[in-house]
Amino acid sequence: MKKGTNAFPRNLKVGIVPTLRLLKKGTNAFPRNLKVGIVPTLRLLKKGTKGAFVFSLFLTTLGLLSFCRAARTAPSPKDNASALSPLEELKKRQIISPDAEDYTEEDLQTLVRMKKAESLGAIDFLAHKLGDIQAFTFETHGKTNSPIELNQAGFEKYLFFLSQKAINYFASRHVEPKRVFGLTDALGRKVFDKNGLLTLSGENLFDKILEKRPVEWELSGKIMANHKIKKESLSPAP
Asked: I need a labelling partner for 176 at 20 to 30 A (CA). Which of 4, 16, 105, 212 fits?
């Protein structure tokens, strides 16, 4: 304990000051703190330095705080994925060819629909239907714990199953399968395309039906709905 008089200035030099400098660097601060901050302080502790134990705890806390801050601010793999340009993401999801240099509004619309499908549980839906979905999805960063996303084939398969589900629903509402092509939403937009797949408007309509939200549709001028229609809704528009 005879060396206690000069311990505080020396701690400033070998422990606290370097540690505070490293805190600004964030990511690698904690490992380096062990070398330039905590270890020298512990050496002083062996020599009986007055107050070294307190400073050791202090430096350890600073190092942990720096490490945690770096973990919070470091970009996650998901952030990196979302940072892709539209062209890159369209290629990644196989919506356009790998050598494409441009894309259309329809391509972007497909991408938006694909992401919406994922948010509504398309991955689990396909897994339940098919079991093995490797051909229809991909892992964004090649790791088993990475987020899984749809590719173009996966979205087409999902849309097919969803369309079949929609056809069965409308059949339960007294719309024959061969007549689904005549269905329109409340704004007169087609619900199914010529291939029997849900259009963007049809997909939005059916999503609301699945969410049990009140919606209306038309067939040959007749208004139909998944809820009780008020009489004023049945009167023709002026």
From this structure: 212
